[in-house]
Specification:
Blueprint lengths: L2 H14 L1 H8 L4 E3 L2 E4 L10 E4 L11 E3 L5 E2 L1 H9 L4 H12 L9 H6 L4 H16 L7 H8 L9 E9 L10 E11 L5 E8 L14 E5 L6 E3 L7 E5 L2 H10 L4 E4 L3 H5 L9 E5 L4 H16 L3 E5 L6 H8 L1 H21 L1
Helix pairs in contact: 1-4, 3-4, 8-11, 11-12
């Protein structure tokens, strides 16, 4: 398949999911009839830029025009503008990752009403979406330095970097707020909607986490949701882990698997599986909290008829294992554990 054909195919596929695309990359916009209106290609509030959501009168879905500047194009063009200074290759990688996200299941109307967040939660979610949209791709940034320094190679559109993120040093609020660089990770529900943003504050002098109280913080809602990394085409297996680094370490050595990071042991036990998943591998930490969370999630999955297996590191977590034993050894260890448990599941 030629490069031009590949781009055309991606553009057409994005157009079939134009509204989901707009909600993810332009959350400050709003739907007006058959258009999504936003301020400009950076995602600012406004109405100057209009994106067609469905084909009509011979005009293609996904076509857009900025009436203030005269710019226009398809969703590949728009995605590249939204990401900023990235190459076409990086833009296409992002497009493919987006298209690999799980479809939104039909949700009963009464469930939709019951799950609506309150006003305070809605404000936090809106702030989380705005923060994530202000970030830029992690390649070449301090965020990439941090992850690669831990041996992690699995990145994706769920991650962003921002050089100046609001930071309050103490939890008591006594200190004046500051701004610091941070790795951003979007938390999404099973429809792909952003419900929160995890912030990992970084130290430019060391390339590691900032030496502050709670360098890892969450804005918005995490309950039942996760940070998701799809390998491309959605599969029936999913690896669900605790911390971001733990989950991405597993994903680094098993790039063919889809991932979901729940960030904490508590939220691992609360994870809501997406539709279509037949088996979940629980990549927990090697401690009591991890064991308890795994057991809680396992009970939920079994009640839903979803097969599950445990992946347990030799050390404290899988990032410890990755750095201690290397990629090849960790991959072989995980595949061996999976193979053994698949036989147990099928026999049982």
């Amino acid at each position: 398949m030629s490069a031009q054909r590949s781009i055309a195919d991606l553009s057409a596929d994005l157009a079939t999911r134009a509204e989901s695309f707009c909600r993810q990359y332009f959350p400050e916009g709003r739907k007006q009839g058959n258009y999504w209106q936003v301020g400009d290609t950076s995602g600012a509030k406004g109405q100057s830029l209009a994106i067609r959501l469905q084909a009509e009168s011979g005009r293609k879905a996904g076509s857009w025009q900025d009436f203030a500047t005269g710019e226009f194009g398809d969703l590949i063009d728009l995605l590249r503008e939204r990401l900023g200074s990235v190459t076409l290759k990086e833009t296409l990688r992002e497009a493919r990752s987006f298209l690999g996200e799980a479809p939104c299941p039909a949700v009963p109307r009464d469930t939709q009403t019951r799950e609506q967040p309150d006003a305070a939660s809605s404000k936090r979610i809106a702030r989380a979406r705005k923060l994530f949209s202000a970030g830029k791709p992690v390649l070449g940034t301090l965020a990439a330095t941090y992850l690669q320094g831990r041996g992690i190679k699995r990145l994706g559109p769920a991650l962003r970097y921002h050089q100046r993120v609001f930071l309050r040093q103490g939890e008591d609020g006594a200190d004046l707020p500051q701004r610091a660089p941070a790795l951003l990770a979007k938390i999404t529900d099973n429809c792909g909607q952003i419900t929160g943003c995890a912030r990992f504050y970084l130290d430019p002098s060391t390339g590691g986490l900032a030496v502050i109280e709670n360098p890892k913080r969450i804005l918005g809602q995490l309950h039942g949701h996760a940070i998701r990394f799809w390998s491309g085409k959605a599969r029936s297996d999913l690896i669900v882990g605790e911390g971001l680094e733990n989950t991405l370490s597993v994903g680094t050595v098993l790039p063919e698997f889809d991932l979901a990071s729940c960030l904490t042991a508590t939220h691992l036990g609360l994870f809501i599986p997406p539709p279509g998943i037949k088996r979940i591998w629980i990549a927990r930490d090697n401690d009591e909290a991890g064991r308890n969370a795994s057991m809680k999630l396992r009970n939920k999955l079994e009640s839903l008829g979803i097969a599950c297996g445990d992946l347990v590191p030799s050390m404290g977590d899988f990032n410890d294992d990755l750095r201690a034993f290397g990629k090849d050894a960790l991959r072989q260890s995980l595949l061996k554990a999976m193979k053994a448990q698949v036989l147990e599941i099928e026999d049982g």
